[in-house]
Amino acid sequence: ALRLDISVKTVEFHITRSLKQLRVQLKDYQFLWSFL
User: Fold this and answer.
1) Alpha-carbon 2 to chain mean position
2) Fewest CB within a 10 Å sphere: which of 7, 9, 27, 36?
3) What is the pTM (predicted TM-score) of this model?
4) What is the mean pLDDT of residues 17-29?
């Protein structure tokens, strides 16, 4: 955050958003795995 000259809150927000999107995408795969 310091190197990019942005606030820590901004970084936390983006990380949280990315993790949420990842979780949603992984749910789809979990659904597929249950068929195997």
Assistant:
1) 21
2) 36
3) 0.55
4) 86
